[in-house]
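Q: What residues go here?
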C-alpha cells in the first residue's frame, strides 16, 4: 500500500483529472493516517493485545482499499488512502513489537527483519504488477494480504509478555510453551519475564511526559532519532515516485522499477541472515554510508542533465544511484531502526514510547513524500544533495548514540539503556 502511488500516478491522474497538488495530497495523505495510527497504536496494543491491534488495522485497510477501488474523484481516493495509512501506522508499531516479544533472543533480529522483508516483498509485487494492472485492479489486490492476515491471526498465540503484563498467568504459560515447543523447559525464561514485569508494575502507568524523565531519556532519543534518520534521508520520496525518477532520467520506468523491486527484496532477505551475527550498529553504518554515495551519484546525474553535459551518462548514473540507494537502505536503514525500537523500550512505557517513535517516523514520511515533487521542481540535483547531507548526519548520530543490542534479552537491553 505504501508504494501504490508510484506505478499508478499517470493512470489515476488521467482517469480522474487530478492536478499535481491533488495527486501529491493523495500520495502523502497515507502518512497522515499513519500518524493517527501511530498515536493510537500503543494504547490499542496495550488494551486489546497485539493480535487485537492487528485485527483493527486489517479491517481499516480493507475499508481503505474498497474506497480507492470505487473512487470517482479525489475525495474517495483520499479517504481510502487515509484509512490504509491508519492501518499501516498501527502495523508499523505493533508488528515489530509483537515479533520481538515472542522471539527467542538469538533469532529476534532476524525475525523482526523478516517483517521488513515481507513489506519489501509486498512493495515489490505492487511495483511489478502495477506495470501491467489497472489502478483499480491493483487496489482490489490489496485486499488479499488483509484477508490472509485476518485468517492467520486465529492460528498464532498472543504475546506472552503482554499476557503476563495483564495478569493472564495461565494463557501466558500456554503461549510461551507453544512458541518454544512442548518439550522445552520455559521455567527460567518465564521467571525472568515475570520478575521484570513485577518490577515495572511498581512504577506508575506511563504518560507522554514521563518519557522525558532521566531514566527513559536515552531509549527515547535512540528510538526517535533512528526514525528521523530513516525517514529524512529521502526514502519515501524515492519510493513513492521511483517510476518518475527513471523517466526523467531517460530510462525505462518499467525495467527500472522491476529491478528496483528485486534488489529491495534480495538485499533485505540477506539482511535477515546477518543481523543477529554482524549486529545492528554495523549494518546501520554501512547502510548510511551507501545512502550518502547513492544520493551523490544521483545528484550528479541530474546536474549533468540540467546542464546538458555528458547526456549519454545520465541514465546510467541515475539508475546506478537509485539502485544503490534502495540496496543500501534495505541493507540496514530500512529494517534495523524497527528492530532496535522494538528492543529498547521497557514494557511499562512501550506503548506510549513506541507510539511516539512511530509518529515521528510517519511525520517524516509525510514531510518527505509531500515535499518531494516541489523539491524536484526547485532543483533535481539539489534535492539529492540535501538527502546526502541528512544521511551523513545520520551516520554521526548512529556512531555516537546507538548501542549494539544483539545477543541480549529484552530485559537485559532495557536495564542497561535505562539504568
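A:
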Amino acid at each position: 500500500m505504501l508504494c501504490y502511488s508510484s506505478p499508478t500516478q499517470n493512470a489515476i491522474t488521467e482517469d480522474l483529472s487530478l492536478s499535481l497538488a491533488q495527486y501529491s495530497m493523495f500520495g502523502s495523505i497515507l502518512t497522515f493516517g499513519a500518524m493517527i495510527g501511530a498515536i493510537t497504536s500503543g494504547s490499542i496494543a496495550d488494551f486489546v493485545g497485539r493480535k487485537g491491534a492487528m485485527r483493527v488495522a486489517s479491517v481499516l485497510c480493507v475499508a481503505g482499499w474498497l474506497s480507492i477501488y470505487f473512487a470517482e474523484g479525489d475525495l474517495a481516493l483520499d479517504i481510502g488512502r487515509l484509512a490504509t495509512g491508519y492501518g499501516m501506522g498501527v502495523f508499523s508499531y505493533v508488528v515489530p513489537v509483537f515479533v520481538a516479544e515472542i522471539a527467542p533472543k538469538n533469532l529476534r533480529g532476524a525475525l523482526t527483519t523478516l517483517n521488513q522483508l515481507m513489506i519489501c516483498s509486498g512493495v515489490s509485487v505492487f511495483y511489478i504488477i502495477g506495470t501491467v494492472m489497472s489502478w483499480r485492479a491493483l487496489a482490489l489486490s490489496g485486499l488479499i494480504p488483509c484477508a490472509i492476515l485476518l485468517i492467520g491471526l486465529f492460528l498464532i498465540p498472543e504475546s506472552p509478555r503482554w499476557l503476563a503484563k495483564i495478569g493472564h498467568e495461565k494463557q501466558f504459560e500456554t503461549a510461551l510453551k507453544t512458541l518454544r515447543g512442548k518439550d522445552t523447559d520455559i521455567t527460567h525464561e518465564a521467571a525472568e519475564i515475570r520478575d521484570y514485569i513485577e518490577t515495572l508494575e511498581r512504577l506508575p502507568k506511563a504518560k507522554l511526559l514521563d518519557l522525558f524523565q532521566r531514566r527513559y531519556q536515552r531509549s527515547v532519543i535512540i528510538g526517535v532519532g533512528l526514525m528521523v534518520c530513516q525517514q529524512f534521508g529521502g526514502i519515501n520520496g524515492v519510493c513513492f515516485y521511483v517510476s518518475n525518477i527513471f523517466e526523467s532520467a531517460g530510462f525505462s520506468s518499467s525495467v527500472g522499477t522491476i529491478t528496483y523491486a528485486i534488489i529491495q527484496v534480495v538485499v533485505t532477505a540477506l539482511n535477515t541472515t546477518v543481523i543477529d551475527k554482524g549486529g545492528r550498529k554495523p549494518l546501520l553504518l554501512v547502510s548510511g554510508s551507501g545512502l550518502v554515495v547513492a544520493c551523490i551519484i544521483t545528484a550528479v546525474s541530474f546536474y549533468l542533465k540540467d546542464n546538458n553535459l555528458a547526456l549519454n551518462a545520465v541514465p546510467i548514473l541515475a539508475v546506478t544511484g537509485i539502485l544503490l540507494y534502495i540496496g543500501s537502505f534495505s541493507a540496514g536503514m530500512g529494517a534495523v531502526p524497527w528492530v532496535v525500537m522494538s528492543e529498547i523500550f521497557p514494557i511499562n512505557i512501550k506503548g506510549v514510547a513506541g507510539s511516539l517513535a512511530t509518529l515521528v517516523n510517519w511525520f517524516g514520511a509525510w514531510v518527505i513524500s509531500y515535499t518531494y515533487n516541489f523539491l524536484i521542481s526547485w532543483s533535481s540535483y539539489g534535492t539529492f544533495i540535501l538527502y546526502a547531507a541528512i544521511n551523513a548526519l545520520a551516520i554521526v548520530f548512529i556512531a555516537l548514540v546507538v548501542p549494539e543490542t544483539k545477543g541480549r534479552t529484552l530485559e537485559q537491553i532495557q536495564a542497561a539503556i535505562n539504568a
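A: Context that may help when evaluating the design: The two ends are 40 Å apart (CA to CA). The chain is about 80% helix and 0% strand.
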